[in-house]
Amino acid sequence: MIADVVVIGGGPAGLMAAGVASQNGRKTVLIEKNSILGKKLLITGKGRCNVTNGADISEFFDFIVKNPRFLYSAFYNFTNLDVINFFEDKGIKLKEERGKRIFPVSDRSNDILTGLKKHIKDVTVIHGKATGLVIEENAVKGVSLSDGTVIGCESVVLATGGVSYPLTGSTGEGHKLAKKHGHSVTELKPALVPLVLYGKYPKLLEGLSLRNISVKLYDENKKELYSDFGEMLFTKNGVSGPVILSMSSFVEDNKKMTLSIDLKPALDEEKLEKRILSDFEKFANKNFSNSLNELLPKKLIPVVVELSGINPDTKVNQITRAERKTLVGLLKNLSFEIKSKGDIEEAIITDGGISVKEINPKTMESKIINGLFFAGEIIDVHGYTGGFNLQIAFSTGYTAGMNC
């Protein structure tokens, strides 16, 4: 079998690259080892698929954690507005939500996948496993498959993803193929991952979702490393949710770090104390443990009561000013020591990948092997939550597709 271009990996980056190459008149073959395309795409954004972000493209670099400068050409080759137009031209209506996150109006990731499938209507799709690259005189000549088939070609796009969510097929095979032919792979670690906390409280709070809170990350010297506002969730051994996933990029292994949660960021300490006084006057004859129902979620109350050190059976009208100040401080700075990041199997994306030093940022072509291109999560780049990582996939996929 002969083709001009072989794209390995049927995720968002690979689908974009294959469609663009095909539209440029290149005979294109897409190889996907799963029985369906876009398996990981279908579960992104809790199945809703946050396709990009509505911020100005010039602001995107502030939301890229790893190697933002490398993405300059790719982001301007295919911007977030191009992504929006790409899907709306295919009849998929999009909407903007908090944080300028862009979702399909239907809230169904399958609609995004449908748009990408339309994009590859002239691409030959093979469900099989690529096991090797045929390289001669430092140039791509073909791809070998596990069934013994060899597809002759002059360009290959590796878009096999990282190593997060391995059940979706992201198992690092693309890294191994590239490494075999001289490419460097930086350390592969979890990114956008839940955090594991010390202590008993996460388990007691498991399933509790908090909205409109602010979080901060501190190192052992109490230096602030990160802050954010939004939503989070307690898990059986720690915390997750948008603000936590983005924070995880700043958490370093084997270092003492603290998560601080401001449960009432809209109120300064003085206004919060007035609010608490108002509640205490309303529930003057109640025990302290029964006086916080209008201030806090039910599940959080016993934990706050215990951490405050105030006797839960103390009548509200007997609580001292000092105890009230302690309560205010706790609500503005509910702190937990971080034990570790979650496992890479829990991570949304991978930190690490093919070294950007070995890829031409203007074309996504290898600087080592002629005709070898990279797109998406396989590259050592990643960003915060909010649509930035799918934008990386679409922009690098488009750039590779235009040049392969």
Give an account of the 3D structure.
The chain is of the alpha+beta class. It has helices spanning 12-23, 72-77, 80-88, 109-119, 173-180, 201-205, 242-247, 269-282, 301-308, 321-332, 388-403; strands spanning 5-8, 28-32, 52-53, 64-66, 94-96, 101-104, 124-127, 130-136, 139-145, 150-152, 155-158, 189-191, 195-197, 209-218, 224-234, 238-240, 257-262, 334-341, 349-351, 372-374, 382-383. The radius of gyration is 25 Å and the shape is elongated.
Average pLDDT number: 94
Largest pleated sheet: 6 strands, antiparallel, barrel
Low-pLDDT runs of 5+ residues are: none
Q: Structural class, from helix and strand content?
A: alpha+beta
Query: What count of helical segments does DSSP give?
Result: 11
Number of strands: 21
Shape: elongated
Termini, distance in Å?
18 Å
Q: What is the rounded Rg?
A: 25 Å
Helicity range of the residues? 25-40%
What is the strand content?
A: 15-25%
The neighbouring-strand order within the major sheet is 13-16-15-14-17-18
In terms of topology, how is this protein built?
Layout: E1 5-8, H1 12-23, E2 28-32, E3 52-53, E4 64-66, H2 72-77, H3 80-88, E5 94-96, E6 101-104, H4 109-119, E7 124-127, E8 130-136, E9 139-145, E10 150-152, E11 155-158, H5 173-180, E12 189-191, E13 195-197, H6 201-205, E14 209-218, E15 224-234, E16 238-240, H7 242-247, E17 257-262, H8 269-282, H9 301-308, H10 321-332, E18 334-341, E19 349-351, E20 372-374, E21 382-383, H11 388-403
Parallel strand pairs: 1-2, 1-11, 2-7, 11-20
Antiparallel strand pairs: 3-6, 4-21, 5-6, 8-9, 9-10, 12-19, 13-16, 13-18, 14-15, 14-17, 15-16, 17-18
